[in-house]
Amino acid sequence: MTKKKVLIIDDDARNIFALKATLKAKSYDCLSCSSAQEALDLLKTDAVVDVILIDMMMPEMDGYDAIPRIKNLENREKTPIYAVTAQAMVGDREKCLRAGATDYIAKPIDVDRLLQLLSGSERLS
Question: Each residue of 65-99: b (16+ CB within 10 Å) or e?
């Protein structure tokens, strides 16, 4: 089995660092972008990305705007996208799913739940 490549999109370097460290320890390869626009530029290329973790609250372009744009990219419409957000209020999960997210995980991240989502995405791809 090949390593899955995870793209982490988050404007907070501390979140990227923590997610990368956690996922690398579980044998995932990671890429990161600090803005949604940077991620869109990367995703327009042939870069291998098996799954995306996107922070929903970022300046300039948030996850709610970025997810539909990612899904509209010809080579990315089937890529699983997991919304990662500190917004854990009633209805936030549904809002993320309406934007096109595959699923949702709240911060602080439950690592077991994250790994469960990622292992489920391996069956999707």
Answer: ebbebbeeeeebeebbbbbbbebeeeebbebbeeb
Beta-carbon contacts of 17 under 8 Å, excluding residues fewer than 6 positions away, are none
Structure tokens at 76: 């990315």
Q: Assess contact for 15 and 33: CB atoms under 8 A.
A: no
Spatial neighbors of 124 by CB under 8 A, at least 6 apart, are 78, 80, 102
Which residue from 75, 37, 74, 78 is spatially nearest to 54, judged by alpha carbons?
Answer: 37
Which value, in Å, is the radius of gyration of the alpha carbons in the chain? 13
What per-residue confidence (pLDDT) applies to 122? 58
d(CA 108, CA 83): 13
**125 pLDDT higher than 50:** no
pLDDT band of residue 49 (cuts 50, 70, 90) is: very high
By C-alpha distance, which of 114, 92, 116 is closest to 15? Answer: 114
